Automatic annotation (TrEMBL), chain A:
Domain Acyl-CoA dehydrogenase/oxidase C-terminal: 241-405
Protein name: Acyl-CoA dehydrogenase
Domain Acyl-CoA dehydrogenase/oxidase N-terminal stretches: 52-129
Organism whose genome encodes this protein: Congregibacter litoralis KT71
Residues of the Acyl-CoA oxidase/dehydrogenase middle domain: 133-228
Keywords: FAD, Flavoprotein, Oxidoreductase
Needed co-factor(s): FAD
From TrEMBL, chain B:
Protein keywords: FAD, Flavoprotein, Oxidoreductase
GO MF terms held by the record: acyl-CoA dehydrogenase activity; flavin adenine dinucleotide binding
Family in the record: Belongs to the acyl-CoA dehydrogenase family.
Protein name as annotated: Acyl-CoA dehydrogenase
Length: 411, 378
């Protein structure tokens, strides 16, 4: 019996038994398409369709959104999403493709949307039938998010949207977008409002999605151009001018510090993928010749691999310690470190793998001699997406310094 | 064996931690500590022991020396995770006392079964103890003291807080085999020579044994000694994590008050990000500390691995937090009157004691990459 099981409430224990049984009967097994490392790297419609069908089956079984009320398509359970997540991760099922929908859009719509809107949007979001993307970043508003200029002008009970979003992951698959807009040019923070907009149905009618190529050579994120897109006022979340506060709800959940647990599934990838962990790098080092020895005999590399292992272990332990109030000084101190640490540790681990591989780390995906099929250089490059997206590491440090340590604000 | 979700850190552990924090803050606030240990600022200080014995007597009266003593030997038998919390507070106050060494000795004795119970009973009764094992290079590999004709001969180096202790647990070799002895420091043939060390909050000595007849408490001490090592590392790590928290908190307060270029220091990202990095380092060390302590209580097969992690991390954090603190305090931080040098030096001392970060990582690498048998031979 695992430790979390020992602490289960009666409802959680019953739900866990149910999850185990369902997963045992419904695990899709070895994927029939090549699955990339993360949902943000989904490139082909085949990959998307495979993963959508998996999310749909998990939703139909009650494993997605199960802590949300039944009226909005949830399971009406209490503190059970964590249980489903644990069982799915342990069973190494495929991940869900609607990662922005589940992680960011759902809690934001739930906390700030009108009842009818929630009922319209959330069931299809949970089921994965509607993929979501997030329209925050703009060419002139990255880390300075409050500087967004995409403008919504009132026209009766409708809004006319014009502007340019960029680095928008999954937009080429998305039906809906959560979007931060400017509704008042005279005020920076108070001039922002938050909407949901249907983008797939508006393609060619006010919305253009242009795929961008990542430095890895892969697609996955986009530019989204708005030209006189007309949307109904019922798509607005919360009050006019409250967009910044709504965005904070999104960001809190994006950074893993929100109170609604994001549905997660296991880390199953196709055979050619890898997971970024120091154990994998150590494994790589024991198989990589270096002169007459193995890379794993190099004392400097050993030290650094173990250093990475220690950082990973600490990050894992943070989850446990953050639930022991006597052992933390500030409630947000550990949760706000999650995103920063996870992304920087992954980046450093991938960088180390390249050093272990040596010159062969330059051999990329298409080279038949590439160690690990060129996945480590791909992972290393992609890791910069993690330290930049959702607030750069520098912004995360500002937030930690200001909110947790109480240092003077830089804005 | 699984670890409990809350590290087994129950309500009484929290009360112990809170009570200890109040005790240390009230009994010896940092200005008084500075006055006690740093009143003179001669560069070549004589080897000396500066502490207040009556405060130790109060700690004994509070039962802190019996906390980790198993109930079978007349102690309280609290989990090590609670003891870690106590030592975290001890480090936060940089408190001069033999608490750490006494608890470390307790850890070794606790692995000796019945043979250790007489000594443990003394500890529970307030006997302050330390450990004599290191050679002049600081290696904690038994051999500095040997058994010759049934008596102890040799000199152990880097014996912590010997000037404050009543007894010493000697890890001597008898025909090459580590063997444990319990010796009164006042015994005939024992000589304690104090070192002049940078850390003003502790003392350290070379302890010589010249044909000392001593109580042998464990004839096969190798296993007990080896099994206790993770606890020794973990306990020192706890002190370092607490001291690092003091450094962070003090520097944050300074960065909020001190103005330069018309702004508080903490406004500037070079300072803000550095402070956040110190916080991140402390949190890493602290999570690993409680994980290691919990493993010692509940999952001994993982204790060594996790204690290596904890001490490696705590050593790096100690040096980093201390260095950044002096730097961010600027000229004031480099001044004798400023309290931070007390912690800076305590952290330097701790960082290098019982294995520095690189040593623990090398040991962990051996454990993980070469297997347990190779690691034992190293």
């Amino acid at each position: 019996m695992s430790d979390s099981e020992r602490k289960d409430t009666a409802e959680q224990a019953e739900f866990r038994r149910y999850c185990k049984a369902w997963i045992a009967d419904n695990h899709p097994g070895e994927p029939t398409v090549r699955l990339p490392l993360s949902p943000l790297e989904i490139m082909t419609p085949e990959q998307m369709a495979y993963l959508q069908s998996w999310q749909k089956s998990a939703y139909d079984a009650g494993l997605v959104g199960c802590d949300y009320p039944k009226e909005v398509g949830g399971g009406g359970r209490k503190d059970c999403q964590r249980v489903a997540n644990e069982e799915l991760v342990a069973a190494r099922t495929p991940y869900y493709p609607n990662v922005i929908g589940l992680g960011m859009a759902a809690p934001t719509v739930f906390h700030h949307g009108k009842e009818a809107l929630k009922q319209q949007l959330l069931p299809r979001l949970f089921s994965g039938e509607d993929i979501w993307c997030q329209g925050f970043s703009e060419p002139g508003a990255g880390s300075d998010l409050a500087n967004v200029q995409t403008f919504a002008e009132p026209k009766g009970d409708k809004w006319i949207i014009n502007g340019h979003k960029v680095w928008t992951s999954l937009a080429h698959f998305a039906e809906w977008m959560i979007i931060l807009l400017r509704t008042d040019k005279g005020h920076k923070y108070e001039g922002l409002s938050y909407f949901v907009v249907p983008i797939a149905s508006a393609l060619g009618k006010g919305v253009t999605v242009k795929p961008l190529i990542k430095m890895t050579g892969e697609t996955g994120f986009n530019e989204v151009l708005f030209e006189n897109l007309e949307v109904d006022d019922s798509f607005r979340l919360d009050e006019l001018g409250k967009g910044w506060q709504v965005a904070m709800t999104t960001l809190l959940h994006e950074r893993g510090a929100g109170e609604l647990v994001t549905p997660r599934a296991g880390g199953l990838k196709s055979e050619s993928s890898l997971s970024i962990s120091s154990r994998n790098v150590m494994d790589l080092a024991t198989k990589t010749p270096r002169g007459a020895q193995q890379a794993s005999d190099d004392p400097l590399l050993r030290d650094r691999m173990v250093r990475q292992l220690i950082r990973e272990e600490a990050l894992k332990e943070h989850q446990r310690r953050s639930r022991v109030p006597a052992l933390i000084d500030h409630p947000m101190r550990l949760p706000l470190q999650n995103k920063l640490l996870a992304s920087e540790i992954a980046q450093d681990t991938a960088a180390l793998a390249l050093e272990v591989e040596g010159p062969a780390a330059s051999l990329y995906l298409a080279d038949e001699n590439a160690p690990a099929r060129g996945q480590w250089p791909l992972a290393y490059m992609n890791s910069y997406g993690m330290t930049i997206a959702a607030g750069t590491s520098e912004i995360q440090r500002n937030i930690l310094g200001e909110r947790v340590l109480g240092l003077a604000k830089s804005k | 064996m699984a670890q409990p979700k809350n590290y087994g850190f129950e309500e009484e552990a929290g009360m112990l931690k809170d009570g200890a924090r109040r005790f240390f803050a009230e009994k010896l606030p940092v200005d008084q500590l500075h006055a006690l240990v740093a009143d003179a600022y001669v560069p070549e200080r004589a080897p000396e022991v500066k502490w207040r014995k009556e405060l130790w007597d109060e700690m004994v009266a509070l039962g802190w020396t019996s906390l980790a003593v198993p109930e079978s030997a007349g102690g309280v038998g609290m989990p090590w995770v609670a003891v870690a919390a106590l030592l975290e507070e001890n480090g936060r106050a940089a408190f001069p006392s033999p608490l750490l060494t006494t608890l470390q000795a307790t850890a070794v004795l606790s692995h000796c079964g019945q043979a250790g119970e007489a000594a443990l009973a003394e500890v529970a009764g307030g006997c302050a103890a330390t450990i004599a094992v290191m050679d002049p290079a600081g290696s904690a590999v038994p051999g500095a003291v040997k058994v010759v004709d049934g008596k102890l001969m040799g000199t152990a180096s880097f014996v912590q807080d010997a000037g404050k202790c009543d007894s010493v647990l000697v890890v001597a070799t008898d025909e090459g085999e580590p063997t444990l002895f319990w010796v009164k420091l006042a015994s005939d043939g024992v000589e304690v020579r104090q070192d002049a060390i940078i850390d003003l909050t502790r003392d350290q000595a070379r302890v010589s044994f010249d044909g000392v007849a001593a109580d042998r408490i464990e004839t096969h001490g190798a296993a007990a000694w080896d099994a206790a090592l993770p606890t020794l590392w973990m306990l020192l790590s706890a002190d370092m994590v607490g001291a690092a928290e003091w450094l962070l908190q003090t520097t944050v307060e300074y960065a909020q008050q001190r103005k330069q270029f018309d702004r508080s220091l903490g406004f500037f990202q070079a300072v803000k990000h550095d402070l956040v990095n110190v916080m991140i380092a402390i949190d890493e060390s602290k999570s690993l500390l409680y994980s290691a302590a919990c493993a010692i209580d509940h999952e001994p097969e993982r204790a060594r691995e996790l204690a290596h992690m904890a001490k490696s991390s705590a050593s790096d954090t100690a040096a980093f937090a201390a260095g950044r603190t002096v730097q961010m305090h600027g000229g004031i931080g480099f001044t004798w009157e400023c309290y931070v040098h007390l912690y800076f030096k305590r952290q330097k001392h701790s960082q290098l004691l019982w294995g520095d970060a690189a040593w623990h990582r090398a040991a962990l690498a051996a454990l993980l990459l070469d297997g347990p048998s190779a690691a034992a031979a190293a």
